[in-house]
Amino acid sequence: xxxxxxxxxxxxxxxxxxxxxxxxxxxxxxxxxxxxxxxxxxxxxxxxxxxxxxxxxxxxxxxxxxxxxxxxxxxxxxxxxxxxxxxxxxxxxxxxxxxxxxxxxxxxxxxxxxxxxxxxxxxxxxxxxxxxxxxxxxxxxxxxxxxxxxxxxxxxxxxxxxxxxxxxxxxxxxxxxxxxxxxxxxxxxxxxxxxxxxxxxxxxxxxxxxxxxxxxxxxxxxxxxxxxxxxxxxxxxxxxxxxxxxxxxxxxxxxxxxxxxxxxxxxxxxxxxxxxxxxxxxxxxxxx
Amino acid sequence: xxxxxxxxxxxxxxxxxxxxxxxxxxxxxxxxxxxxxxxxxxxxxxxxxxxxxxxxxxxxxxxxxxxxxxxxxxxxxxxxxxxxxxxxxxxxxxxxxxxxxxxxxxxxxxxxxxxxxxxxxxxxxxxxxxxxxxxxxxxxxxxxxxxxxxxxxxxxxxxxxxxxxxxxxxxxxxxxxxxxxxxxxxxxxxxxxxxxxxxxxxxxxxxxxxxxxxxxxxxxxxxxxxxxxxxxxxxxxxxxxxxxxxxxxxxxxxxxxxxxxxxxxxxxxxxxxxxxxxxxxxxxxxxxxxxxxxxxxxxxxxxxxxxxxxxxxxxxxxxxxxxxxxxxxxxxxxxxxxxxxxxxxxxxxxxxxxxxxxxxxxxxxxxxxxxxxxxxxxxxxxxxxxxxxxxxxxxxxxxxxxxxxxxxxxxxxxxxxxxxxxxxxxxxxxxxxxxxxxxxxxxxxxxxxxxxxxxxxxxxxxxxxxxxxxxxxxxxxxxxxxxxxxxxxxxxxxxxxxxxxxxxxxxxxxxxxxxxxxxxxxxxxxxxxxxxxxxxxxxxxxxxxxxxxxxxxxxxxxxxxxxxxxxxxxxxxxxxxxxxxxxxxxxxxxxxxxxxxxxxxxxxxxxxxxxxxxxxxxxxxxxxxxxxxxxxxxxxxxxxxxxxxxxxxxxxxxxxxxxxxxxxxxxxxxxxxxxxxxxxxxxxxxxxxxxxxxxxxxxxxxxxxxxxxxxxxxxxxxxxxxxxxxxxxxxxxxxxxxxxxxxxxxxxxxxxxxxxxxxxxxxxxxxx
Lengths: 288, 768
Description:
By secondary structure, chain A is α+β, with helices and mostly antiparallel strands. Chain A has helices at about 10-20, 35-40, 75-80, 85-90, 90-100, 105, 110-115, 125-130, 150, 225-235, 240-255, 265-285, and strands at about 5, 25-30, 50, 60-65, 70, 135-140, 145, 150-155, 155-160, 165-170, 180-185, 195-205, 210-215, 225. Chain B has 19 helices and 30 strands. Chain B is globular. The two termini of chain B are about 50 Å apart. The relative contact order of chain B is 0.12.
């Protein structure tokens, strides 16, 4: 690790102006589970590290039936997976959080970090996509909100501008007749990176699927929605044949790469398999 | 078991407290004031000529104390690359600096110019004439060419008859065997018995297959580390995390060209070894030379990435295997042609290709094995070197045969297993062995013949075998005035071997286990000892501890007889006391009293010595049965149940033995399902735990161990080496279970989900 200067600002404004001042030589520190590894490997060599630990109001989970769910950017993965409201109503997000690293890692890793990092394979990204999350961004002078689908620009790239800080996520309230699931394809049961991640969220109305959202991770330059597959399911009652069609459409909409983990072809097959499985589970959960 | 008081009991390990409290000092915990930190700078090319190495910028960095390259190796023995690099990460030299970050920074400032050369990573490509020839252009003959060449030589010596037609025929055949001219071969080994081709001709069923087993790292928890201190006198002290500090001493002496007596190696608590912790060049030699240059203590420590790039992992291989059987399951013949990937350094466990013969009796065997160079780091031992690979091929093929002839896989194995007195193919006759007992124990544990399975579930069984090594080693036993007993030796404790020794000494001297303690000496103080590997330790050191304790007991009895005014035949040692046995008044002397008394007698303090160079070791067998469930959509495999039986001779500490069995199963499971060092033209592409996967407890549920005890004639209390056998059948066990679950056979490890999905897609084209 190279030497660096460490800051612990007490407000968003202070953090933002440090970011502006030091530009490309500064890194924001959330849980540190990505940044510190990069610094140790010298793949990231910031001269200035700005911790968000002491900035108030950035951690926590709140919910009400009108405004829905709010999760602070500094909220730990472990808190998300253990939150009863997240587990009941925003199940895919709890399941995504639960897939990150080990318990020790999840006690440090933050939701904001998982997303702001810009990884197309982030475990919570597919869930946030299907739960209609809005990303709250602030820079000390003001705030703006961006739908999660627009937040990503490409691998490691997001809409965050110089001095901007991701502060939290808002998700609309969910009807009782809704359900979701996140599944991750990997080799090891736990503590593995996503070869493919798929989240599906549905809401039911009169026995048919009124709304479907399918999010895919690790199979495109950024997390994407499988909109063609969603259109196949929405407005219909689920059947094996319908899900098979949707699975094929999701696979077709993905654009995975081949790498040392597996081939693009395998990733597409897994997208299909997990689309089908998550859709079935999401519907079953919505019916409970 | 009840005849023993301490051996055969699962007592807590002697090092349990220091391990669980974190007090144990591992190599990385050794620090001294003024200590410098070493960093090795490494090749960034996979295969290249070195044009120049420029350390001038690195030398200028404040905090850098010394930089060494191959030019600093006094004997010129290869430690760092000088003319040419053969793999990515090959060491070029080392830096010593005041802290690890400065050393790393300096290592990055070393400028190296290369002229890149073509790369070869696949053994089957490397043997071809158009592959880059890594170390020389010499060639070796394949199996058929060897036979013909030998015949031609014989014919050319025969005079009187006209052999010209035969010679012409053989030469013609030789001319068509260009694909048996192998390049880049570092070593070869051949074995045969009977006539394998005749055996195949006589067989009802002949099955052939090609099996590919990847190179895997031992992934011991603690990366290589050493601390060296060179004294102005020329004497050296090295604190080494190693499986054998005497081996490190002789290794360093050889590279430096200095006497053994100038080097003291202190063996510190080791964070795992599995065969990979004998390598002197990883850290020991760089630390020593940097300390000599600077006069300061120097610590050299690899990180995990360096372990992968420049460790000495277990070798991968390609095995072409052919087996002939009769319809009733009788094995007739087996032939193997194996290519082991030894990387850039000659080595590889080629001789253990012979493990394809398993524990079965059959008349015809042929084995031809070659070690082949590629642009990778060298290899070394990994727990039963070569056996898991060879046995994977052999036991997978046997399972395939069971399916073809419609015979139960356990019955097929039982039918062919050797017993005492049977001829080992290309070997001696079997001593007393427990093969059948161990197979039956595992089968009974799962009620094999009534086993059930649901959809996508399958059972797999496999049998692996191994023979432990032995000696040399020595132990001293002292009995102190408080009755306590201390063992002193030079053996590195792995997996509870010190505990076994303490149990044995307690048993012989009839004292409570807690009264025995152990001190490990450095190479200056302790008697010579073999390294802790090859399942030798409990077999060797258990025997020497027993001899030493018996020696001490003899001295105690002698002294007691003298003190009690009787003959030695009339005293006995029991419950820590020596008593009269001739019916006189119950007089006795405790061990403490005798030890105190010994201080004022002519005989002097009670010391027992045990020393041996070797004893005939014992064949051990491990049988494993697994039940798995495979998701045909994703190819993911879930382990439902694992039973592992093993003939351990006698379990001196059953808890420790179970630990050994479980550890082997987990490592074997990992090798079959996920572990693999991946290489391409850029070198090792997964040098870290993100993409080199080792399992967690979530991947493999509780392992049911079944201990079988068929005593080894020469083992302490009948004990056999237990460390290595447990890994030998596992790869095949899980592969066979996956096949039973899916109907497809994957002969190319690891069995990743993608391979299962692909095999299921192409099912109908037959197994590979």
